[in-house]
Amino acid sequence: MEETKNNELIQLLSEKFGDKISDVNEPYGLLTFETTKDVIQQVLMFLKVDPKTNFSFLTDITAVHYPEKKHGIAVVYHLHNMVAKMRVRVKVYIDEHDPTIPTATHLWNAANWMERETYDFFGVKFEGHPDLRRILNMDELGVFPMLKQYPLEDPNRVDKKDEYFGR
């Protein structure tokens, strides 16, 4: 039954947005597709307000850094239609050297802090955001720690050295 719902949703999106909807797949039954940043606000609005879609709950906004790909950062939205018990993942690839995308704060108030967190860790600038500033890290940090060019651990930590553990 879920596959039929997913197929119907993709049909609706394809009719409305044409080739702006791409790379449709369903890992573990979670409908996932890509779109572009020039239509992301319209796609999200359609998913939220159209009575046939009704994805009224924004579960999460985050990003993933893919330095090996042409567009280095994927901004990822997770939406939930609680009535139909459906979830959807929407991905938008943006240039890691100019990581900008329109805000979703006009659709969901919860997008405010999610976008701030994504900015704080990945440097994604959400155009039109009412208060885009760091939310967890220090303002003077100067880097975006979830980008893969930064090491996972501080190389100067002495508590991880082998000689302290008899190795």
Low-confidence stretches: none
The helicity comes to 10-25%
CATH homologous superfamily identity: NADH:ubiquinone oxidoreductase Nqo5 subunit
Strand content: 25-35%
| Main sheet makeup | 5 strands, mixed
Number of strands: 7
**Mean pLDDT level:** 91
- Spell the H/E element sequence: HEEHEEEEHE
Q: What is CATH's topology name?
A: Beta Polymerase, domain 2
Treating each run of at least 4 consecutive H or I residues as one helix, how many helices?
A: 3
Gyration radius (Cα, Å) is: 19 Å
Strand order of the biggest β-sheet: 1-2-5-4-3
What is the level-2 CATH architecture name? 2-Layer Sandwich
3D structure, described in words:
The chain is of the alpha/beta class. It is 23% helix and 25% strand. Strand 4 and strand 5 form a beta hairpin.
Brief descriptors of the model:
alpha/beta, Beta Polymerase, domain 2, two-stranded parallel sheet, 23% helix
Summarize the model shown.
With 167 residues, the protein is of the alpha/beta class.
Lay out the secondary structure.
Elements: H1 2-17, E1 22-25, E2 31-35, H2 40-49, E3 57-65, E4 73-81, E5 86-94, E6 100-102, H3 111-122, E7 125-127
Parallel strand pairs: 2-5, 6-7
Antiparallel strand pairs: 1-2, 3-4, 4-5
